[in-house]
Amino acid sequence: MSNQGAVEGSAITTNGSRTFVYEVVGLRQVDSTEQTSYPIRKSGSEFIKVPYDRMNQEMRRITRLGGKIVSIQPAGILEKPNGKVSIPGSVANIEGNEKATSEQQPKKSKEGNSMTQAKAKHADVPVNIYRPNAPFIGKCISNEALVKEGGIGIVQHLKFDLSGGDLRYVEGQSIGIIPPGLDKNGKPEKLRLYSIASTRHGDDVNDKTVSLCVRQLEYEHPETKEKVFGVCSTYLCNLKPGDEVKITGPVGKEMLLPEDPDAKVIMMATGTGIAPMRAYLWRMFKDAERAVNQDYQFNGFAWLIFGIPTTANILYKEELEEIQQRYPNNFRLTNAISREQKNASGGRMYIQDRVAEHADELWNLIKEEKTHTYICGLRGMEDGIDAALTAAAAKDGITWSDYQKDLKKAGRWHVETY
């Protein structure tokens, strides 16, 4: 997903007669960017507009951030007839699981169809049907609590009505939500991205809804010590049926589910990172979904490792347990409940501890060509996962970091953290 503002350490102006657009992948959060108020996402492409006289300087900066430039285009190619540039704009702060971004503006093909610079194999995936300057106005159908009594925090499952519009999406994508009101600078609030928690057919399997899983962000201000609530997450968690919502998108091609119905799918999620996993599992196992997806009848194997603080925080608990009961040979559920379970060292059980516990089994699955691995949740969970798989791969004389690069090139390793 594009996140231009998060990679521009300093303002990039367009002085000079020539400007270019860099498409960059692989940017990461490093010491030089840790002081920013937004995490740098680890998936998708970033698009950066660069004046000619700063091209070499920007190349060096991108390299320092671990990025790789995959294409350079004259900015004029992406300009609209009215002179506006069709590249991402500035980005708002990320609020917890709120993924702030301005959406990538697609260029047009000769046939007039929306296109992006993503991989050709995903060219038919819908993107940017609705943009920030012309969002779709949907309506909240329902807003249901997912955290049971005694749990920590507020997490809601929201369903929106898409009828009357043309918002289409597939599993693994995200939509943008534009909250009402003005930010601290007196400007309209910018959109936040949320992973879609429903299949392309929606929870009602009628192609007219989209669902989100949203946690209300709550934290202590580092200076005033006052309790602060996330703007967009609070807005969404307080929506009532019938309320109108500004929706943009969809965006994202990093977390798409393989079309192979015999694939093996490893899913590792923390908290609201369960959202895309729920969409996958519905597509794989829900009766109504299987009835309308005659060309996709999942017969492979799916394994979800889910990290949450308490049993009451197991989001979609009943749905997950029902799938496990009905499809014991095709679905495996492993929870890491940090405040109730202990790891091998007697400490709290986190998702990386579960991965370490099952590292050899996971490694053997990952080596199979039909296996895809998905990681979604809070940034930082990857380090413990990598450590566990490094030890397992070493038993076969394989360097995990090198093998992981090959998995990414093959499109079998999918990460979306924030």
How much helical structure, as a percent, in the residues?
10-25%
Under CATH, the homologous superfamily of the largest domain reads: Nucleotide-binding domain of ferredoxin-NADP reductase (FNR) module
The number of distinct β-strands equals 19
Q: What is the rounded Rg?
A: 21 Å
Structural class: alpha+beta
Largest sheet entry: 7 strands, antiparallel
What does this structure look like?
The chain is of the alpha+beta class and 418 residues long. The protein folds into three domains: 4-90, no CATH class; 136-251, Beta Barrel (Elongation Factor Tu (Ef-tu), domain 3); 264-417, Rossmann fold (3-Layer(aba) Sandwich). Helices cover 21% and strands 26% of the residues. It is built from ten helices and 19 strands. The chain has helices at residues 4-7, 55-64, 231-237, 274-285, 287-292, 317-326, 351-357, 359-366, 381-394, 400-409; strands at 19-25, 45-51, 68-74, 99-100, 107-108, 114-115, 136-145, 155-161, 174-178, 192-195, 209-215, 218-220, 227-229, 244-251, 264-270, 301-308, 331-337, 371-377, 413-417. It has a seven-stranded antiparallel β-sheet with strand order 4-10-9-14-7-8-11. A five-stranded parallel β-sheet has the order 17-16-15-18-19, sandwiched between helices. A hairpin with a 5-residue loop joins strand 5 (107-108) and strand 6 (114-115). Helix 7 runs parallel beside helix 9. The radius of gyration is 21 Å and the shape is globular. Mean pLDDT is 82; it is low at 1-17, 29-43 and 77-120.
